[in-house]
Design a protein that fits this description.
541 residues; alpha/beta; seven-stranded antiparallel sheet; six-stranded parallel sheet; 18 helices; 39% helix
Length: 541
């Protein structure tokens, strides 16, 4: 067991698999096939969210699992009880001795942009061991890739200049789903998370402000009486700070033509409390009562007091109502205050929008010319509400040097046999033109490359790439790391670069152009020869 590379989640262990993996492993063992040299591919058949790309994630956790896979004594004692009584004790001993020391992992780097039917992960090793780890690998890749892709789509629709904050923990599918979502949303393009545990575990920036409960918990300014502490980094105490805030109240209300007597004192009290506690990160909710007749005026009163003390307020968050209209009006108010009080940076104070935001919400806000600097996104992001599963599969492609195939009346479910090498072909402008899947051992795609559709005989094209790249690396060889694992920040940067390299029509969210995933001539001929060999010829009378 590799102690410094244990899975991040202690639930990821050998027993995190389907029962039939164990029964198949026993059948292999009983028939002396358990040590047959096998090769499996992990891939998906269709891009999620009606799009034409996917972000591959989950590789590091797969590697961690393989390096540490093994059954404990309590595991095999449990299996002994649930398996049929006739199961040979030698198989139980085999499971107890199992490890990942003879497994090799080839894979596309985590954070890469990938497409249907491409081998994301290829594992080689003893047949029974590779069978046992199937379910775990699928579990680790399916959700990770799905939520990273979802996050990437949010980034594409929001644009590069808007901050994206992941607020999904409370709506996620349990603690594991919440922590995983935070990790892979960051990779997919989000800037920070509200999830403290995920931030700690994965070195993700952690952000958060306050909730309506904090705002509504205060009633009067007298709630803050008797506090003898001072503002951090400033000799001003609470009584003095309240006095400064009061000095700006009439000025702000007159400027905004708001009745000062109608602003909510409890809201102002909460803002003063928060600013007193966090003078360098003053950002508050302004929609607890009335955005324009209380929330924004109260925010500005306290913001001006902070500025008076040489602190710089951050901004506001709105969590309900018409986000486009409100953000535009708030921005105009900030500009008005900046000009009136001679504080230029007030024009650019942050406005964060939240409230059940999805892709379509952001697209609509864009059309309306919103003035938001950031979005806080939760439910639609971490639950992948528009598509709950990616649909990765794990298929046997070679045993003891012999290519294996699985046929189906649905052509997309017919597997591509054999161990493969995946290349990406680039055009003269630097954009990927197509990916080509070749048989292991074929020469690299130099010069004029014939690319064929895997199933349709007449769909073929010659490509003259300006350059090409092999997408796979060998990460683990016989249970040992052979390639350094990148940091989460490197994976995030790769994701950003990969999306940036694509033609815009391939990654646009509405009616995207399908990206070509083809096979070489040799791969095509081998695959279709095997299809013919394994398809019985029917007889009719």
């Amino acid at each position: 067991m590799v102690m410094d590379m244990k899975p991040s989640n202690p639930l990821v262990q050998a027993l995190l698999t389907d029962f039939y993996q164990i029964t198949m492993a026993y059948a292999y063992w009983k028939c002396n096939k358990h040590n047959d040299r096998a090769c499996f591919d992990l891939f998906f058949r269709k891009n999620p969210f009606k799009g034409e790309f996917t972000i591959f994630c989950g590789l590091e956790e797969c590697i961690r699992h393989i390096l540490n896979v093994g059954f404990s004594q309590s595991d095999v004692d449990y299996l002994r009880n649930v398996l049929p009584s006739h199961v040979h004790e030698g198989f139980i001993e085999y499971l107890l001795a199992m490890d990942g020391s003879d497994i090799t992992v080839h894979a596309i780097p985590e954070g890469s942009i990938v497409f249907p039917r491409e081998p994301l992960i290829t594992v080689e090793g003893p047949l029974a061991k590779l069978q046992i780890i199937e379910t775990t690998l699928l579990n680790l890749v399916n959700f990770a890739s799905l939520v990273a892709t979802n996050a990437a789509r949010f980034r594409l629709v929001a644009g590069e200049d808007v901050k994206l904050l992941e607020f999904g923990l409370r709506r996620a599918q349990g603690p594991d789903g919440g922590v995983s979502a935070s990790r892979y949303c960051y990779i997919g393009g989000f800037d920070a998370t509200s999830n403290i545990l995920a931030a700690k575990m994965y070195d993700i920036p952690c952000k958060g402000t306050n909730a309506h409960s904090f705002i509504t918990s205060f009633n009067k300014l007298t709630d803050l009486s008797g506090i003898d502490k001072t503002i951090n980094g400033c000799p001003c105490n609470m009584e003095e700070f309240i006095s400064i805030c009061k000095s700006y109240k009439d000025k702000v209300c007159d400027l905004l033509k708001v009745n000062a007597a109608e602003t909510i004192e409890g809201e102002l009290t909460s803002f003063i409390s928060y600013a007193f506690t966090f003078p360098n990160s003053y950002l508050v909710l302004v929609d607890s009562y009335d955005v324009f007749n209380s929330g924004v005026p109260n925010f500005l009163i306290v913001a001006l007091a902070l500025h008076h003390l040489k602190f710089k307020p951050v901004g506001v968050r709105i969590d309900s109502g018409d986000l486009a209209y409100q953000s535009i009006e708030i921005r105009q108010t900030f500009k008005q205050a900046a000009e009136h009080f001679g504080i230029g940076y007030f024009s650019d104070l942050s406005i964060i929008g939240s409230n059940d935001i999805c892709e379509d919400t952001i697209a609509s806000l864009n059309q309306q010319g919103h003035s938001l600097n950031a979005f806080g996104v939760g439910t639609h992001l971490v639950t992948c509400k528009s598509q709950p599963a990616l649909g990765c599969v794990y298929k046997l492609v070679r045993v003891n040097g012999l290519n294996r195939i699985k046929l189906s009346e649905d052509p997309i479910k017919t597997t591509m046999p054999g161990k493969k090498v995946l290349y990406r072909l680039y055009g003269k402008e630097g954009h990927p033109l197509a990916d080509v899947i070749q048989e292991d051992g074929e020469p690299a795609p130099e010069g004029r490359v014939l690319c064929r559709h895997p199933n349709l005989e007449l769909k073929r094209v010659y490509i003259n790439p300006s350059s090409y790249k092999c997408l796979q690396k060998t990460w683990v060889k016989d249970g040992k790391i052979t390639e350094p694992l990148p940091s989460i920040h490197d994976i995030k940067k790769l994701c950003e670069d990969e999306i940036g390299s694509m033609r815009r029509d391939h990654v646009r969210l509405l009616n995207p152009t399908p990206y070509k995933v083809s096979v070489s001539e040799s791969m095509y001929q081998m695959m279709h020869r095997m299809i013919l060999e394994h398809t019985p010829i029917r007889e009719m009378e």
